[in-house]
Amino acid sequence: MKYLLVLLLVLPLSACVMLPGDFGGPAGKRLVCHKGKKTLELPPEAISAHLGHGDYRGPCH
C-alpha cells in the first residue's frame, strides 16, 4: 500500500517535469524562453539557434 501511494504521488510530478520544453503551441512548435523575458513558440528547426545564444527550453518563469 505504501508503494502504491508513493507511485501515485511521484508519477504526476515526473510528467510535469518532462513536458514543458517539448510541447507547447500549434503545429509541433516548441516553447523557448527568449532572453529570460519572453516565451516564444518556435518550430523545431529554430530551437538550436536560440539555445546557442543563451535561451532555454520551456516557458519563462
Automatic annotation (TrEMBL):
Keyword Signal in annotation: yes
Signal peptide location: 1-19
Source domain of life: Bacteria
Keyword entries, A-Z: Signal
Name this polypeptide is given: Lipoprotein
Lineage, opening ranks: Bacteria, Pseudomonadati, Pseudomonadota, Gammaproteobacteria, Lysobacterales
